[in-house]
Amino acid sequence: MDLHKEGDRGSAKQKKVKIVFVIGGPGSGKGTQCKRIAQQFGYTHLSVGEILRQEISSGSETGSMIQKIMKEGKLVPSDVTVRLLQQAMQGINSDKFLIDGFPRNEENVKAFEDLTKMEPEFVLYLDCPQDEMEKRLLSRNEGREDDNIETIRKRFKVFMESTLPTIEYYESKGKIRKVDAGKSVDEVFESIKVIFSQGKDNKVPPSRHKCKCLIL
Ligand code: UP5
Ligand code: MG
Fold it and tell me: How is residue 202 annotated by DSSP?
């Protein structure tokens, strides 16, 4: 799959590559729900946060730049994020991508559209109260460097200031599918299932209910 060619607009349709973005505040349950969606509806799950953390683990110079930004709860420059995301997508032969935690701001949207010439089919928005997200992150205990109260509050601020306008942008294009993510994992997934069951080519026969998650 070449997501880079000039004059390739519309290639998503020709090649039938479908993209769904999943956005929501820190701790809203993006990763948790994406795993389930990938399994049930046959999507390839790519977490952009995980892709960035893998770059940190690689020990590259870009990785150390990303690490500093993440520690501050800020956003990595779009050219870096979109390049890494595009590389990850190009390395996988899939026609359905679930992109978790992206885009975060309008610059991300533009960079993605400019580079890949693709647009999402729709954007799943996990809407969760901040106190609930804070509680979840503080009890996650996975050793993430940004899961301390100081960085968590900065991440919330960035979400409000940068990501909410992106949600409004997609809302204006009729692409937002919002669910109440403050409920239990099962209840949230029930609402999500309704959304993903609406597109007829989202339904996969039981034999194909195999998780294609790259990032777990
Ligand atoms: N949990 C989940 N659902 C629950 C439920 N319904 N009820 C009770 N508990 C629930 O869930 C968080 C915790 O809550 C888990 O313990 C889970 O069991 C529980 P999770 O599914 O992990 O939530 P998620 O929304 O994925 O939270 P995450 O912390 O991953 O979200 P962030 O958006 O903060 O993190 P991400 O990894 O996407 O990004 C990290 C950083 O990378 C950003 O801050 C930024 O610096 C950088 N970044 C960019 O710069 N650009 C990008 O495009 C992407 C990331
Ligand atoms: Mg996550």
Answer: G
